[in-house]
Structures are given as structure tokens and as C-alpha cells.
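User: Quick sanity check before I run a bigger batch. Here is a single chain. Can you write out its predicted 3D structure?
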Amino acid sequence: MMRPVILSSWALEVLRYENIVWDITSRYRIYQSCSRLSGMYHLILDLFRIYAT
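Assistant: Done. Predicted structure follows.
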């Protein structure tokens, strides 16, 4: 009984992780086209915001 629950929660975790990675990479591309320094600054702030939630 427990296995499907564990599997589905794991799948959700993977999907969430993929969304975070996609979010970071797309944001990084935007920031890269801006100035490099402010881009890195915002990227670090975003990482803190993501892992704080």
C-alpha cells in the first residue's frame, strides 16, 4: 500500500526540482543579457528565496 504513495511523492519532488532548475536557468539567461554582476547578485538572491520556502 505504501509504495505508490512514496513513488508519487518522489515524482512530485522530481517535478518540483526540475521546475526550480528550469526557473534558475531561464532567469540566468535573462540576467546574463543584463550586466553580469547584477545578474549574479539577483541569481544568488533568488536561490536564497527558493531554498527559504
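The longest helix spans residues 2-33.

User: Great, the batch can go ahead then.
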